[in-house]
């Protein structure tokens, strides 16, 4: 597969993973090109784990690292794609609290609730 085919495959997977909310940067940036051609074209497309499974794994890692903005991107995509319900998303914070610490989970609580409300509004649902 050529680099341009891998990039296209990566762009398509990026769009799918993030429910169309993240746009691929234009070609020519080594970091972005590598991310699209390797991470999204080669890793996210593997069949051994579903997108939901991969997302839950990285949400745990992101939560432990204390990256609330990135956690919010993942949470929004999980809700929009139907991978997690609002209650399941809240449940992830209980696991985070017990394995990564309450301060880490507490820092994500506001992000999770804001994300749930934003997706519900975007989808035209009540609270």
* Main beta-sheet annotation: none
Q: Write down the oligomeric state.
A: single chain
Shape verdict: globular
Low-pLDDT ranges: none
Cα distance, first to last residue? 45 Å
On the 0 to 100 scale, the average pLDDT is: 94
Number of domains: 2
- Structural class assignment: mainly alpha
What is the H/E order?
HHHHHH
Annotation, overall tally of beta strands: 0
What percent strand?
under 5%
- Give the helix proportion (percent range): over 70%
Number of helical runs? 6
What Rg do the Cα atoms give?
A: 15 Å
What does this structure look like?
73% of the residues lie in helices and 0% in strands. By secondary structure, it is an all-alpha fold. It is globular and about 45 Å long. It starts with a helix and ends in a 5-residue tail after the last helix. The model has no long low-confidence stretch (mean pLDDT 94).
